[in-house]
Structures are given as structure tokens and as C-alpha cells.
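Example (one chain per record):
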Amino acid sequence: MVEELPFTEEKIGDQKFLRYFDSDKSEEMVWHQDPEDRRVRLLEGRGWLLQLDENLPVNMVPGMWHKIPMFEWHRLIALPGCTNAVFEVHKLK
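Predicted structure:
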């Protein structure tokens, strides 16, 4: 069974992606891990938080980069009243 992801994705470069999140699908955000280090930043939207394992959630401010280490448990949190969001994701080798 293939799980549907809570975003659509557009490749914009070598290991660089834009991810589009719909605020209506905010309940689909789950704790997960990724097999590589990542840098992410919010380009558009408001009301989104990033939480890494064993840490409090942090507000995603447009333009601010966040590092997610490989295999670190993490999740996005969409606050009530959040807007749709666009994230830039760089998968680091």
C-alpha cells in the first residue's frame, strides 16, 4: 500500500524541490524520518511549525533556513487558521 503524501512537489534543481502544502490537509502531517540531511525554508504561508524529536516546535518564518538531520524524527504542524504553504527543500548528500 502506497501512502499519499500531504503535499505536491516540483523539482527545481539537483536535489532541490518546492513542496506545496494545502492547509485543508493539515491533519495528515505525521512524525517521520528522511534518509538524508535536509535544509528547508518556508517561502510562502503562515501558521506553520517545525518540530524535531525531543524539541519544542519552532515557528517557520518565511526565508529562515532549518536543518533536519538524516533519520531525525520530525513533523510539520499546521496551526488552526494557517494558510497554504510553499517550502523549499534541499536534500543534502
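Caption: The chain has a mean pLDDT of 92.
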